[in-house]
Amino acid sequence: MALINPPAWMQAGSYPARTDRLVIASLMGYPGFLIDEATPLRIRQGVRPSYTNQQMKVRAAPTPNMTVIVSAGMAYVDNHDAGGAGTYVCVNDADVTLIIAPAGGAGQFRKDCVIASVYDAETAGSASEWRLEVIQGTYAASAGAAVRPSLPPNAQILADVAVGASVTSIAAGNISDVRQFTVGLGGVLPVSSASAPNRPHPGQTMYLTDTDAFRYGKVDGSTGTVTPDQNIPWITPAVGTGYTTGGTTAGSPGNRNGPIRYRKVIRDGTPYMEWDGGATRANGAATTNILAGTLPAQYIPYAVRSFSVARNATSITSVANSSSVVHTVKVDFDTAGQVTLVAATAGDVETNWFSLVGISYPLA
User: Fold this and answer.
1) Coil, strand or helix: which one is 262?
2) Which of 142, 332, 357, 361 is most open to solvent, judged by the fewest CB atoms within 10 Å of its CB?
C-alpha cells in the first residue's frame, strides 16, 4: 500500500517513484473499460484534449519527406508491465521530428505507428525513459492488407502512417490520427463512439465526436445518452433531369408536398436521416437517381434503405385494374449516395408525382 500525503513525521527524504505514479493515477480518470475492472488502480490513458486537439498530433513535414512531426502536448500512459504500478505523465514541450524508415520496393506496403512509450527498469527491462518513436510494420502485398505492428506494453498510439511501395515522402493523406483522449474525473471526455469506454464512472460525461451526442455513465456500469435539443437546418438538393421539386401552393409539382429536402439528426446517440417533400416526374424521365448528384458521404447509409412512397394513382401498363390497387412506388436510398426511383419503365406514366414525406432511417 502506498501512503498518499502521509503525516509530516512519516515523510522521508526519498521514496519510491511508484508513489508519485500512484498519486498521478489517483488524480486521473476512472479506468473506463470492463477489462480493467480487475486492476482498479489503472486509468484510461490517452492524450490530454485541447480546443483544437493539437496536443501530440502527428503531421507531415511542411515539404513532405520521409519524416513526420509530433506536436507539443501531454499524454498519460499507464504501466502495463505490472498491475498497480501507476501512471506516467509524458510531456513534450516542442515539435519533434521522427524518421520514417525507407519504403519497400514494388508490391511492398506497410503500416507504421507513431507512439508515446514508457520504459521503466523498475518493472521490466533496463531502460528508464519515455520516447516518441515510430514502430515499423511488416510488409504486405497491398495497402489494405498492411496491419498495425505489435506495440510496447506501455504505449499510447498517436498515429498510423501508411507507407506505400517505393514512396519517397509522407504526406498528410498518409497519416491517420488515432489518438484517444483522457481527462480527470470532472471533465467531459471527447471520444469517438467506437472507442468510448464501456464502463465510465457514474456521471462521467463523454462527447461523441462522430455523432455529436453526449453519453454518461450510470451506477450499474451501463451508459445513457443525452440528446440535446436539435435545430438542424434542412438541406434542399437539386433534382435530376426530368424531375421538378415540389411546391406548397395549388397546382404545385409534387402534389403540394413541398420541395425535396433532407437532414441528419441524432436519436439516442445514433445518426438518422430524415426526408421531406416531393417532386413531379416528366414522362420519359430516368427512373434511377432522383437527385442531380449523389449525397455527401456523411449522409449515406451503411446499407440500402428501401421504402414504398405515395404517388399518383395512374394505372401501370399491362397491369389490369392497377389504378384501383396500386398507389405507391419504391424508392431506394443506396450506398452509392443515390436516391433511386424504382418504377416499371422510364417512359411509363405510372409515376407523375411522388412524396418522400416522413421517411427516416439510421445511417449507422
Assistant:
1) strand
2) 142
Q: How far apart (Å, rounded) are the C-alpha atoms in residues 179 and 207? A: 15
Give the three cell numbers for residue 56: 501530440
What domains, with CATH codes, occur in the chain?
Answer: 14-185 (2.80.20), 186-226 (no CATH), 243-362 (2.60.40)
Residue 64 has pLDDT above 80, yes or no: yes
Pull the grid cell for residue 183.
481527462
206/195 Cα distance (integer angstroms):
11
Work out the pLDDT band at 180, boundaries 50, 70, 90. confident
Q: What angle do CA 260, 261, 266 make, to 5 degrees?
A: 145
Bridge partners of 96? 70
- Highest mean pLDDT, choosing among 125-129, 185-189, 303-307: 303-307
Rounded distance, CA 106 to CA 165, Å?
Answer: 5
DSSP codes joined into one string, 147-213: -PPP--SSEEEEEEEEE-TT-----GGGEEE---B---TTSPEEE-TTT--SBPPTT-EEEETTTTE
CA dihedral 287, 290, 293, 297 (to 10 degrees): -110
> Beta partners for 279?
245, 354
Report the range of poorest mean pLDDT among 145-154, 272-281, 341-350.
341-350
What predicted TM-score, i.e. pTM, was given to this entire model?
0.57
